[in-house]
Amino acid sequence: MSIQSNCLLPPSLVSFSKRGFSVRSFGTGTHVKLPGPAPDKPNVYDFKTTYDQMYNDLLRKDKELYTQNGILHMLDRNKRIKPRPERFQNCKDVFDLILTCEERVYDQVVEDLNSREQETCQPVHVINVDIQDNHEEATLGAFLICELCQCIQHTEDMENEIDELLQEFEEKSGRTFLHTVCFY
C-alpha cells in the first residue's frame, strides 16, 4: 500500500516504512512554514530550500528556541530522509491512500485531485484526522494513523470496509475523520 502523508512526521510516523508501508510526505501550501518566535511570525521558506539550509538558518536565528520546540530535531530527521520538502500539487505519482492531519490540507488535496484529468480511474482514498501541530499531539496522532493503516492493510475489501473501519476509529479515538474517494 502506498501512503501519502500531509502532516508533521513525528518519529513514530517515519517508522511506517519499517512496517512495510511506502510513505511520502508533502506540503500543500505555496511555501514551507515552520513555527517562529511567535504564532504570527512563522519562518517561511520556498520549496526549493533544503532542510539543511532551513536547519542552519534557524540555528543562526535562535538555537535555544528551535531546539526546545523540536524544530531543529525534526529538520535533522527530515534531511536524512530527503533533501528538501515536496509540494503535493507538483507530484504526479499515484497513491492508494492519502492522509492529512488538518482539514484545510484535506480540502487542498481533494481540490487538486479533482482538478486533474482522470486517466486511469484508479481510486485513491483521502482521509483526514485533525491533529494539533505540536510534538505530543503529532506523536499520539502518528500512533493512531499507524494503527488505522495497519487495519486498512488487513481488510479483505478496502472499498467496502473502509467506512465502517473509520467509524470504529472515530468511536475509539473520539476524533472525527473526513473521508472521500478521488480518481486518477
Automatic annotation (TrEMBL):
Coiled-coil annotated residue ranges, if any: none
Catalysis performed (reactions): O-phospho-L-threonyl-[protein] + H2O = L-threonyl-[protein] + phosphate; O-phospho-L-seryl-[protein] + H2O = L-seryl-[protein] + phosphate
Gene Ontology molecular function terms on file: protein serine/threonine phosphatase activity
A biological process from GO: mRNA processing
Major site of localization recorded for this protein: nucleus
Localization per Swiss-Prot or TrEMBL: Nucleus
PANTHER family xrefs: RNA POLYMERASE II SUBUNIT A C-TERMINAL DOMAIN PHOSPHATASE (PTHR20383)
Any single Gene Ontology cellular-component annotation: nucleus
Described function: Protein phosphatase that catalyzes the dephosphorylation of the C-terminal domain of RNA polymerase II. Plays a role in RNA processing and termination.
Name this polypeptide is given: RNA polymerase II subunit A C-terminal domain phosphatase SSU72
Domain of life: Eukaryota
Keywords tagged on the record: Hydrolase, mRNA processing, Nucleus, Protein phosphatase
Gene3D superfamilies on file: 3.40.50.2300
Known EC number: 3.1.3.16
Family as reported in the entry's similarity comment: Belongs to the SSU72 phosphatase family.
